[in-house]
Amino acid sequence: MIRIFIADDHAVVREGLKQIISEVSDMHVAGEADNGTSVLTAMAAGSYDVLILDITMPGPNILDLLKQLARQKPRLSILVLSIHPEEQYAVRVLRAGASGYLTKESAPEELVNAIRKVSGGGKYVSAALAERLLFVLGTDLAQLPHDYLSDREFQSFCMIASGKSIKDIARELNLSEKTISTYRSRVLQKMNMKNNAEITHYAFKYGLVD
Questions:
Q1: Contact 35, 59 (CB under 8 A)
Q2: DSSP 114
Q3: Which pLDDT belongs to residue 140?
Q4: Which region holds residue 174: left if phi is over 0, alpha if psi is between -120 and 50, else beta?
Q5: What residue spans in the chain does CATH classification 3.40.50.2300 cover?
Q6: From the CB of residue 167, how many other CB atoms can be counted at a distance below 10 Å?
Q7: Cα 33 from chain centre
Q8: What is the pLDDT of residues 111-168, one digit of tens each?
Q9: What confidence category does residue 53 fall into, taking pLDDT thresholds of 50, 70 and 90?
Q10: Which CATH class is domain 2-139?
Q11: Its pTM surpasses 0.70
Q12: Exposure class string for 13-31: b at 16+ Cβ within 10 A, else e
């Protein structure tokens, strides 16, 4: 029996996932949470085979959360579920420790296939993305300007694009305002941009923010 933990801040999504999984004889939803902090607590207290993790939840940033889980539960298979297109986030979350990446538009049978694949120790992405991952993960080639950003720079970039202030970002990431300002400067330099408006325009163009 594959023991599954569902983490999503929308109750409707959790119920939908549980309904799909309930129809599969060798899978069982053994727990659920609606924020990243609760996920860390639950993983420390229990034993699960697969964690289905929403990419945007209250609590730690997804990349920080994945890295903490990798240290805390190195054998846990994590399937990231997202509304964002694969090509925008999959490479980064796989590098951070995820076992697979699936969009919320995927069919129920694809979800079941993904759970089986990662629970067996494999990696799951769509066939359309697999070829690119061979190059990006294998040779570390970047395809778009934001691929050159470090994880912290990318986090700051997305939060700036969402309209958050330097002060707000510093508080959420538990870093100093000076450090966030430095990240912003690096983002502008690496992406050849001049201001926050250009950051926001780019982020919406490529579907990096809602």
A1: yes
A2: H
A3: 47
A4: left
A5: 2-139
A6: 10
A7: 16
A8: 999 999 999 888 888 766 776 666 555 544 446 778 778 888 988 999 999 999 999 9
A9: very high
A10: alpha beta
A11: no
A12: bbebbeebbeebeebebbb
What pairing do the DSSP bridges indicate for beta strands 50-54 and 77-82? parallel
Cα separation, 205 vs 203, in Å, equals 5
Task: State the pairing for strand pair 77-82/27-33.
Answer: unpaired
For tokens 């990096």, name the residue.
208
- Candidate CATH numbers 2.70.98.70, 1.10.3720.10, 1.10.10.10, 3.50.50.60; the one for domain 145-205: 1.10.10.10
| Residue 141 φ/ψ, nearest 5 degrees | -80, 140
Give which of 135, 167, 132, 169 is closest to 154, Cα–Cα. 169
Which residues make Cβ contacts (< 8 Å) with residue 197, sequence separation at least 6? none
Distance of CA 22 to the CA centre of its chain: 25
The residues pairing with 28 across neighbouring beta strands, listed in sequence order, are: 3
**What's the token pair of residue 182?**
């430095």
- In the chain, which segments carry CATH 1.10.10.10? 145-205
Q: Per-residue pLDDT for 8 more than 90?
A: yes
